[in-house]
C-alpha cells in the first residue's frame, strides 16, 4: 500500500513516452494540440492496448512510463505548495518492512537488473548504488557511493549472500518508497496535518516465493490482511494471520469511523509530531509503538548526502 508523491516514479516527465504512445496509436506528434486532439478521439480500450504494446514499465529507477504530471490544470502547482494550500487532513501512511523485495525477489524478472538472483554479488550491489548516485547528478559521487556501501553493508559480511540480497532490497525500497514517504510525512506534519505512521512487519513464510532467503513483508503484502484478497498468490491463513487481520482491519476501521486508528480508547498509536518525527506503529501479531521509522536511511539520504554535496561547493583546490 505504500506510495509517495515525493518518489521518483510519482511525477514522471513522460513527454518521450507519451509521444511513443501516440505513435503507437497512429496520432501525429508534431504538436501537442494535434496529438491531444487525436488522442481524445481514441477509446480507453485502444489506449490500454497501446500502453501494453509499448510497455508500461521503465527500465530505470523511474519504474513507470506514465504518471500524473504538473500540467497547470489537474495539478496546478508542485506537491509541496498543494499540500500547504489544501485543507488539513488526517492521514494514515506506511510501508511494508521490505518494500523493495517486491521488485528484487517477488516479481523481479530474471533478466531485470534489480533482480537479486543466486549469483547476485557485491559488484552488482555497487553497480546499483552507482545508479542511485549517478555522476551526472552528484559532484562527489565516488565518495557518496563508498559511504552508501558502508551504510548498507556495515553490519555484516558482504560475502553473505542472504545479507547482500536483503541490503539490496533495503536500498531499493529506501529509494523508491521509504525515504520519499518519510519526506511526505514530514511535509504534512510541518503543514499541521495529523499523520499516523506505520510499518507492516508481519509475513507468513507461505506467502513468499520458493527459494526466497528473506521471507519478510514486501510491497502490497499487507493487502490480504485488509481485504482478504491475495494479489501475489493465495496461501492458507493460520492463527497468526487471522490475528494480524483483526488488528489491521480494526485500526483502519477506527480511523474511518473516528479519524483515529485507536478508536475511543487505548491511544497506543500516536500521531507523528514535530518533536517525534519518526514514531510509528510496528504492525505484527503484537504491535508496538516505537521511534526510528527507517531512521538510518532517512538520515543518510536526506541529511548526509546533501551535506556532502554542499561541502563540495566550498572545497578550494590547492594550487600546484
UniProtKB/TrEMBL annotation:
Coiled coil: none
Cited InterPro entries: AB_hydrolase_fold, CarbesteraseB
UniProt superkingdom: Eukaryota
Residue span, Carboxylesterase type B domain: 1-301
PANTHER family for this protein: CARBOXYLESTERASE TYPE B DOMAIN-CONTAINING PROTEIN (PTHR44590:SF3), CARBOXYLIC ESTER HYDROLASE-RELATED (PTHR44590)
Name of the protein: Carboxylesterase type B domain-containing protein
UniProt organism field: Plectus sambesii
Amino acid at each position: 500500500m505504500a506510495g509517495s508523491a515525493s518518489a521518483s516514479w510519482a511525477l514522471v516527465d513522460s513527454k518521450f513516452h507519451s509521444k511513443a504512445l501516440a505513435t503507437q496509436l497512429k496520432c501525429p506528434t508534431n504538436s501537442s494540440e494535434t496529438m491531444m486532439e487525436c488522442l481524445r478521439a481514441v477509446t480507453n480500450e485502444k489506449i490500454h492496448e497501446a500502453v501494453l504494446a509499448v510497455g508500461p514499465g521503465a527500465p530505470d529507477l523511474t519504474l513507470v512510463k506514465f504518471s500524473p504530471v504538473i500540467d497547470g490544470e489537474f495539478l496546478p502547482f508542485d506537491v509541496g505548495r498543494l499540500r500547504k494550500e489544501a485543507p488539513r487532513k488526517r492521514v494514515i501512511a506506511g510501508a511494508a518492512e521490505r518494500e523493495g523485495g517486491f521488485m528484487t525477489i517477488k516479481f523481479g524478472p530474471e533478466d531485470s537488473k534489480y533482480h537479486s538472483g543466486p549469483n547476485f554479488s557485491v559488484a552488482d550491489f555497487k553497480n546499483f548504488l552507482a545508479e542511485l548516485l549517478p555522476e551526472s547528478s552528484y559532484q562527489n559521487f565516488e565518495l557518496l557511493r563508498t559511504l552508501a556501501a558502508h551504510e548498507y553493508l556495515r553490519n555484516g559480511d558482504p560475502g553473505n549472500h542472504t545479507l547482500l540480497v536483503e541490503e539490496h532490497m533495503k536500498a531499493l525500497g529506501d529509494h523508491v518508497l521509504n525515504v520519499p514517504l518519510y519526506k511526505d510525512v514530514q511535509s504534512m506534519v510541518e503543514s499541521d496535518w495529523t499523520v499516523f505512521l506505520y510499518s507492516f512487519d508481519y509475513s507468513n513464510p507461505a506467502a513468499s516465493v520458493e527459494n526466497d532467503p528473506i521471507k519478510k513483508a514486501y510491497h502490497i503484502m499487507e493487502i490480504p490482511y485488509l481485504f482478504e484478497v491475495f494479489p501475489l498468490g493465495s496461501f492458507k491463513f493460520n492463527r497468526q494471520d487471522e490475528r494480524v487481520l483483526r488488528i489491521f482491519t480494526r485500526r483502519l476501521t477506527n480511523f474511518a469511523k473516528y479519524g483515529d486508528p485507536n478508536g475511543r480508547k487505548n491511544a497506543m498509536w500516536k500521531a507523528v509530531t514535530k518533536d517525534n518525527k519518526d514514531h510509528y506503529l510496528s504492525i505484527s501479531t503484537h504491535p508496538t509503538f516505537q521511534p526510528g521509522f527507517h531512521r538510518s536511511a532517512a538520515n543518510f539520504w536526506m541529511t548526509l548526502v546533501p551535506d556532502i554535496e554542499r561541502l563540495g561547493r566550498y572545497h578550494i583546490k590547492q594550487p600546484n
